[in-house]
Every structure is written in C-alpha cells, then in structure tokens.
Amino acid sequence: MSESVPNSTASFAHRNRAASTGSFAFYDESHDAEIDAWMDEEGAILDDLDEEADGHLGFAAYVVLCVLTGGLLYLVFRWVPKWRIRLVGARTLLRECEWVAVEDQWGGMEELGVGRQAYGRSLSSVFGPEDEKGLQRRWRRRLRRRRSSYMESEPDDYATDIEDDDDYDDDNDPVVRQLRTLDYRYMRFCYHPLRDKFVPGNTWKDRAWTDASALRTGLDSDERESRTRLFGPNLIDIEQKSIAAILVDEVLHPFYIFQIFSLILWAADDYYYYAAAILAISLFGIGAALQETRANQRKMHELSRFECATRVLRSGFWRQVPSAELVPGDVFEVSDPGLSQMPCDCLLLSGDAIVNESMLTGESLPVSKMPVTDDALAQLSLGTPSVHPAVGKHMLFCGTRLVRVRRPPPHDSAGHPAHASHADAEDEPAALAMVARTGFNTTKGALVRSMLFSKPVGFELHRDAFRYVGVMAVVAAIGFLASVANFVRLGVEWHVIVVRALDLITIVVPPALPATLTVGTTFAQERLKKKSIFCIAPQRVAVGGKLDVVCFDKTGTLTEDGLDVLGVRVVEKPNKSGGDTVPDGDGSRSSESDTRFSPLIASPETLVPTNKLAATQSTDADIDYSPHRALLYAMATCHTLRHIDGALVGDPLDERMFAFTGWSYEEGTGGEDAGGGPVDEDVLGGSGSLPQQPRLSPSVARPPPPPEDDANGDTSSSYESSDADSAHAVLRKRTKPLELGVLKAFEFVSQLRRSSVVVRRFGEKGGEVYVKGAPEVMEEICRKESFPADYEDLLSHYTHRGFRVIACATKSIPKLNWVKVQKMKREEAETNLTFVGFIIFENKLKGRTTEIIGELGRANIRRVMCTGDNILTAISVARECGMIDKTAYCFIPHFVHGDAHTALSQISWHSVDNPMVQLDEKTLKPLPPPADVDVSLPYDMSNFKNYSLAVTGDVFRWIVDYAKEDSALMHAMLVRGQVFARMSPDEKHELVEKLQGIEYCCAFCGDGANDCGALKSADVGISLSDAEASVAAPFTSRIFDISCVPEVIREGRASLVTSFTCFKYMSLYSAIQFTSVSFLYATASNLGDFQFLYIDLLVILPIALAMGWTAAYPILSTKPPTASLMSRIVLIPLLGQIAICVLIQAVAYKTVQSQPWFKAPQLDKDKSNSKNSENTALFLVSCYQYILSAIVLNIGPPYRQPMRTNMPLMIAILLTFLVSTYMLFAPARWLFELMELTFMSPGFKSFLFALGVGGFAVSYLAERHIFPSLAGLMGTAKRILRSDHRRERKRYETIEESMRT
C-alpha cells in the first residue's frame, strides 16, 4: 500500500486546520475511547461551519489578482497550493462539500472533486457489515440536532444521504440514496453518512463470504452493476498525461520560469546570441525531460496494466467477458487455457494451482495454492496491508504468473468422486476462483501506488542549497540597489538601468544549478547498472551514501540458499523386548533415562537399513527402528515440493532434505490441500494397487527400487521378512510395495514455525501425522517423556556451531478415513506428538560474506542480522562472519515469568556462553558478575563494554507492545541488538521502522518474499533477485551475495560528494562572474555577448557535467561525507575561495588602469560598452579562475577516485585552459574581434597569466591546509566561549553514549 495512503486501520476524517479548508487527518478505528472523543470534537466543529463565508467571492478575488499581476500570482498559487485553497475555498460540512483538499503526511496538497451518483442500496453493500449500534445512535441524535438547527436557517437546501433517518433503528440497514466518492491517488473513498468521513473502499468485504461452498454461485446482473459503480473497472491503468500537459508542467516549473525571465532580460539587453544559445539548451532540456517522462509513463503503464478474456459465471450462465469487467464476488475459471496471469486478487474455490509471485516479491520460487476453507474466510481481512498466512495460501494475487493449474475431479450425482471413465469430458469441472479485490485495491495495485507516490526523499544538501541561493539572492538584491544608484549617478537611461540591475540576479542564481545537482546520481546509477545492480528509484542512490546501519536476512543472503544435510540424530531406546515396539498414542514408553540420541547418521541407508524400511516387526534385539522410520518418512512426505517441467521444485531446504532420502515423489492430482484431493475411504486402504486415475490419487512418496540382486531372490531388501516367515509371506509382502500417501497437509506458517502432513501407508487402515519445524516449538506439541535428557544440550551443540536444526515428531492414528482427514483441524493433528529426532543442515556462508561484513565494519557501518532462524544458529553465523566480535559478550533473553502476550512478563538476559553474566532487566547494562566467576576468559576484558544483544521475535514483540517508546529498554535493544532471530516478516518491517525512529539511516538486504515489507520501508532496500527490476525494492541485484551493499554505499557517497562539488563549483562560478560584472558596472561597462557564451557554454557546462564522471573510491571511509552546507567545514572554505577570487580580480582591475596603453570604457547611456581594457583583463583572468577552480574544489579520496582517473574532466580542463591561454597571448584576428578584446602588452599578458596561475596555487593550498585548520579553530573557540554548546547529534548516538556511561 502506498505510503501516502492510510493503512487498513485508518481512514480520512474532516479536520479544522488553519492551513487548509478541508484537509484529512488519520483516524484509528481500533480505539473506542478515541472514537467518542473524535465524534465529540467533530460535532463541535461541524456545528460551527454554517457561519462560513461563500467561496465564490474568494474565487473571484483569485481571478482578479491573477489578471492584475499578469499571471504571476497564478504561478505562485500553483507552486504553493495551500495559499490558493485558503483564498478560494469555503469550509462546509463534509457531507455537502463539492470538493476537498487532501494533505498527505509530507505536506503535499491535492484538490479532488467529489463524485455523486444515484445508488439506492443498503449501507452494508458499500462498507460491509459493521458493528455500529452505539455509533449509529450517537450520530442519529447529532444528525437530528443539526437538521433542526439547519432547517431553521436553510429549510429548502437541507437533504440527507440516508433515507428515513427518523425511522432508523438499530436492526435496520439504511439505504444510501446517493453515493458520494472521491478518487485519491488511484484509491476510491466512499462517504460514510453515519461516520461523516470518507472511508477507503479496499476494506470492503461481502457479509456472505463465510461459507466456502456457497461462493460458487457468482453474481447476478444487478449486483454486478452495483459493484461496478462502487469499485470501478478492474484495471491498474495509470493515467498517461498528454504531451501538452507534460509540457505545461515542465515549462511552469520554477526553474524554467526563471529561464524564461532570463531570456527576456538578455534579449532586451541585445544579448541575442547568448539568449538564443540558452534557449536552444533549454528547449533541448525540456524535450529530453518530456521524452523521459513519457518513457517512464509508458514503462509504468506496461508494467501495471493487464487485461485478458475470462470465463465468468453470471446469473447462472458462463460467459466470456474482459477481465476489466470483473468485480468482487465474481466467479471465474482459473483453468482456462488462455489465462496465464492473474487479473485480480482472488480466492481459489476449487482445483489447485502453482504460481510464480516473483513480480511482487522478487522471489521466483513456485508457490502452491489450495481451495479456500471456511476458517480461512473467517480470517479474511481485505483492508490489511499484508494477508494473513492462513488466507494467503488460498489467494491468487494479481500480477502473479500461473505455472500450473489443475482441475478438481468430477463428482457423481451423489457428490462422490467419479472415475474418469464415468465422467464426460465436456462436463469436466473447472478450477474456479472468486474475485476478492480489483484494480488498485489489489496487492499489485498497492505496490504500483507505492512506486508512484513513494515517500519523498529529502536531503540536507538540497535544502541547504536553496537556502544558500536565498542568501545569494539577498546579495544580488544589494548589488541591484548599488548598481541602480551607480547608474543613476552616471546618468544611464532607465531601461538600461533596470535591465542591467536585473541581470545581476541571473548571474548570482545560476539557472543550471538544479541540473548539476542530479549529475552525480545519473552517473552513479549507470555505474551500478554495469555491476548488475538495478535501481527503480534514482533519488535513493544518494541516500546510500548516508547509511548508518544495514540489516541482513540470513538464509540466502549471508548464507547459501541450498543447505546441505549434514545428517540426522534420531531418538533411540534399547529394544529390551526383542522386537520393534511402535510408540502408542497413550504415551506408554520406557523410562526417559533409557531414551538417547543416536550418533550422527549421514545416509538414508544407515538411518533405516533396506531390510527394515517397511517392516512392522524386527529381528534386531538392540534397536527400535520405529523412530528411524518415522524420521525418514517425515523427510519424504513433509515438504512443499511440486513437479514443474519434469523436476521437483520448491523451498531449497525441502529440496535438499528430500534429495537426502533418495525417494521418489509422485504428486497427486486431487486438489484439496497438498494434492490430497477428494479420495474416497477405500483409497490407500483397500486391496489391490493404487487407482490408475490420477484425479483420485493423493501425492505418493516411494523408496528407491530394490537392488537387482534382491529382485532375483534376496529377501533381505526393502520388503523384509523375519526368519520365521514362509516363502508365501515373502511373496505376499512383495506384492504390497511401500507407498506413503499424503492425505492432508498443513503448510508452514511463520507464526507457528512448523508444517505437518497426515499420511497413510498403502494397505494400512490407520495413518500417521508427521511434523517438522523449529525445535523451540516442539515442547508445546510433543509429550514431555518423548524428549531425551540431553535434548537442549545437543540442540545447543549444533546451533552454537552455526548448523540449522529442524526437529521432527510423529503420532499414529489407529483408524483413518477420508471424511475424518478432511474434518481434522491443525490443532488436532499437531498435538500429543512423539519427538523422533533432529535433521542437521549445514548452513554455509556465501563466499564473500565475511569479507563484506568486515569491510562494512571497518567503515563504522553497523551490521544487523534479521532472520527467522534459531537464535543460537544466528549468533554462530554472526560470529563466524564477523558481525559479532568473537571476544565480546553476547546476551540472549528468556521469559522468567509470562510470555510475549503478557504485559507484566519478566525477561532475563544472560551471556550465551556464561549464564552467570547477566544484564540489568530495565537498562540492559551489564551487572557486576559474581565474585567466583572469571569473566575475562575466554574473552578480552576490554571488550566487556562492547557487548551485543541477540533478540528473539517474541521478546522483540513484547518490548514493542509493552515497553514505552522512549524507554531505556527499547533504546538499548535497538542500539545494542546485533542479531534478531525468529522474526516474522511483519516484525522485520517493524524493526526497520524502529531503527529509523531513532534517526538511523537504515538499509535492508534480503532475497525473498519474507523481506518484502522491510525492503520497501527501509531507506535503501536491496533485493537479491533474478529480475532486472522488481517492485519489491528500490534496488535489485542480480549478483546473489551481499557485495552489492558496499557498492551501493560507495556509489551513494560518490553521488553525494559529486552533487556537493558541483554545487560549490556553481556557487563559486556565480560569485566570480558577479565580481567581474560588479567591477565593470562601476563604469557602466559589461561582459560581451560572446564572452558570456564562452564562459557559460564552453567552460562551465563541460566541466560541471564532467565532474560527475569521477568513479567511486574502492575503499569505504570510516566517516561518511557531510550532507549539510550549513557547517563550518563547508562555508569557511567556500567563503575563503570567494574572497581569493575577488582579491585576484581586484588586483587585475586596478593594475590594468595604470598601464600606458589602457583603454577606458566609453560611457554610452543607451547601451553597455564592452570593448575596453578593464573588460579584457577581467574576462581573461576570470577564465583561469573558472577553469582552475574545478581542480581546487574537486574532491577525490576517500569518497571518489583521484581526478586524474576522470579523463573527460581532465580533457575539458586541459582544452579550456589551452584555449584561454591562446586568447590571452596570440588570438587570431577573427577571435580577437569576436570576443571584443583590446590590446595589451606582452608583459601584462604574462602578468595576467601569472596572476591566474598564482591565484590557483594560493586557492589550492588554502583549500587543503589553511581553511580546514581555520574551521577547526573556530569550532574550538566556539566551544570555549560557549561552554554549554554541544554538537548536534543523532538520537542513536546519544543513546550509545549513555549506554557506554
């Protein structure tokens, strides 16, 4: 959802604001107390609005003022819309307004017309079912009171939007006679008559969406027409401005208005050539901007718009309609062969699907979708920013690509599954889906809105640049007054005085300044593209240069995607009875002391010998193989792998786990859940082989075929027999192969951190439940006596060493049929389980992870890990890659009392390696260790204060929910937290926002869908993705390691410094030219037309553009570049350089006047005389200042490469220097006349050359040595004179300092 639009829990309410006539404010509906207070406030406001003046008078005044000022005030009102709104608008009741003014949280203002259309349907059809009895009663009283008071003054004009308000009671659903809407940034808001505010339409949900089986009937024509009026067409259709509209927007920008003013001024002063050249450049710039804007619009239009033909069920009949006509509630066919991409957000009703959501998430893994259930419908909330995981697995999102869609099996008249031979191909059922959200209300639409209306990126540099321009404008005003006085004294004509004086303003404020500030960003973006890092938000490039902290996802970002299975550790107990005993569901087992973990088992053959793979009895008197088989069966069935193009594809962890087993997997075609489908009671339970119809089969896992020698008579293979078995028994067992059918699957949910399957073995009446998930959650769902005594020790052993550990559990269900399976709830399946063992995954770091983490550390950029993995595993990986100092303490939390949902919970923090070393619970500062504890070993005592925190998701949730925003606990967690483990996607997003809240400039680097929210909210989001550009993040890297992070930082710093350098250069250029012109104005002289052309077009423009060519320095500095002009280290050198330039020109100006060949300017009251010795001397010496200042101001290491590496800049400086020297010493006659030069002696020419070069030497030495020292001395003096003065610091720096004390 766009950051400029309220989220699902907010809507817009009318507010009385001083700066607007009817702006909107955020209103949180979740707090009942605030509702009452808000309504009381609104009632008071609205009761007073009937005395407001009519807006027609204000509009008339607006028109008159615009005409009288020749359109100047029109431009001012266009640039500052608040002033126009204040003048022309008249506040009125929101229910009666004709237009509204909307102000977003960043100060942007828009005027929107309110649409009106006849509706005549119930209130709930617009806003859905709501519990509003108290709200309705209160508003009914207020409406009646206002009606009676309003009727007394305007009895003929009063009308209500709700019919029969007097007869309204709490059980009625009132009829909305007139629907009032406004469309704000492609989002429709509908006026709620009872709440007296516009409510976003994306929160709508049909009250009938409770029974999944009843959703397949579709809509009738009347309902479709009503919803079309309510929601509009199902299109993400970005408005494309016409060329004329773009041209007007471009030309009326303040920059081009100033250019037009300058062109008129230059033409009036007879600078025709210069004005023509600037006009040509401006037209080229406007044309380039026009083309770029059109190209961006077309690109966004092509990216967002999609329309196709769909088969829709309307009024009981199937018909082909364009997808643009779909409305919420429509039922359409997903299995239509012509449908390759989803045109809307919809709920899958029947069949099953596999989709690719990479366009939305940046993650190209296939995602399985299953038919929606009643429980999922109960949790459906269409207004929330993120979809609940229980709903997401049933929802097909707009913009996702359909990889595979399977139809549901046919049913007979009784509703039972029909065999394929009995089903008519023409009556074959279709995979159906119901439209839930359309157009810009979809997930894709929200992401497109976030791209169009993203959070504005403000820089201190840009703000300070315009402040500096304002200061220079004051200087220009002073020069203007001084010039006017001087020209009046000389008797110059008034039209010349005005033109000359105004010309100073165009010199002091260089028109090319805005363009030069973006040069660095453009070049940096191109360099990033060559390194396979793509950016869809150029304004974010420079933000990368200001980063303070970078948050990393772990798996797939810091570590390899594909985890290698190191092996398994199985729960074993001696088989004292001499045979295998399957654990009973009642919990009867041997004592806990007999249960132990097996040694590490590194192969499936060692895990379960082939002759015991399918056994129910064993001749081995030493080991009970039941847990071994359960663990192997769990690895073979509890996953989300799907067959796509002949290969099993899915989560990388599942792929490696299944590959370890060596089994084969045949995906079912039934449809319900994980391919279980509507299988009747005899499937997998009767005699004979599996049904041949694929529609009736669940997903089946099979072990590898037996070796050939076993097939030729060796009975000790995968179909085992005991010594007592007869040959007949062996033959019977061989006719019943081992096949595990997955009847139902509960997919992984990030909140539960586990997944499970219900499995039945071919030929058995009962079944098993297999669960795999995080070891921490097993204690909640497994029987305590099933855990070995060393459970925690073994888990800690592996997680401390960086391995990823997955726990498995099982339980048996004696009798199982299809109906029982489908009615089984997750809570029923995942309870009273028996723990069977661990799967150990080797989590290898990517090749460059340690190198990059070290590089960021040396640059004093904080690194934070944010992962969903186990906290000890995350700490181990953090230590291995250098994110946490191996010699410093790391503290982890645990709940002493309560949990994440209890406000009065108590949390204890202790060292991960030494539990005796703890932190204070409130301040998170180290407590004095007990006297008998040696805290120095194995750690360095000097690092005791440089401790770090590792925070779990539940502790993070508790601190965010129950700790105060500015509490020491919250601050300490955010400043000292280096590892955040077991974090959900929403918690990752929230962590980024909390870090930004204490003034961190934060980046997030991740690789998939779980990171989407954090990537969008971070100042710099970098997605590791195959896509060249994805809407998941501003930056997308096709190099799948974190080497992209320092690249973005380097280029960001280079971009920031380039903009800074260009600004200083342009400022010094305007100061040099202002000085030259001011000296010449003393005698009513000026620079010539071609002199201006040479300076601006042949010297300044090439050098300013070439400055951005300098590449980033390869080594990250420990200190980021400054982004503020309002600092001593910037202003003192800049002012010093201006003083040196003024001094050099003053020497040339005075010296030339004393020469015997001096040619004084001839006073012409009607025009300027530029052909004189003062002009020639100042022009030539200033050329050296323009050129050589580029060398003085150029900033190289530690942010950019040395200037010698920038060949375009070196060539531009060299050529302009040579041309200027040529003009000084031996210009050709035509050049001499063209540039309006005068005679000078050879000796004086050498003097000017020495003056220009000598001035450069002085400026260079002062810039590198004198001015920085002077700035430092001034800072020291300020601290001495003002003892209470303290350097302005960011909040997190203050918190860090307090933590150290």
TrEMBL record:
Q: Where in the cell is it found?
A: Membrane
Q: What is its EC number?
A: 7.2.2.-
Q: Name one GO molecular function term.
A: P-type ion transporter activity
Per its record, how is this protein called by name? Cation-transporting ATPase
Q: Which Gene Ontology cellular-component terms appear in the entry?
A: membrane
- UniProt KW Transmembrane keyword: yes
Q: Which residues form the Cation-transporting P-type ATPase N-terminal domain?
A: 215-266
Q: Where is the P5B-type ATPase N-terminal domain?
A: 57-192
Q: Positions of the region Disordered?
A: 574-602, 668-728
Q: Which reaction does it catalyse?
A: ATP + H2O = ADP + phosphate + H(+)
UniProt entry keywords in alphabetical sequence: ATP-binding, Magnesium, Membrane, Metal-binding, Nucleotide-binding, Phosphoprotein, Translocase, Transmembrane, Transmembrane helix
Query: Boundaries of each P-type ATPase A domain copy?
Result: 310-450
| Superkingdom of source | Eukaryota
Enzymatic class: translocase
Q: Which residues cross the membrane?
A: 59-77, 243-265, 271-290, 465-484, 504-524, 1062-1081, 1093-1116, 1128-1149, 1177-1197, 1209-1232, 1244-1262
What membrane topology does this protein have?
Multi-pass membrane protein
The text of the family note is: Belongs to the cation transport ATPase (P-type) (TC 3.A.3) family. Type V subfamily.
Q: Chief subcellular site? A: membrane
Q: Where is the composition biased (Basic and acidic residues)?
A: 586-595
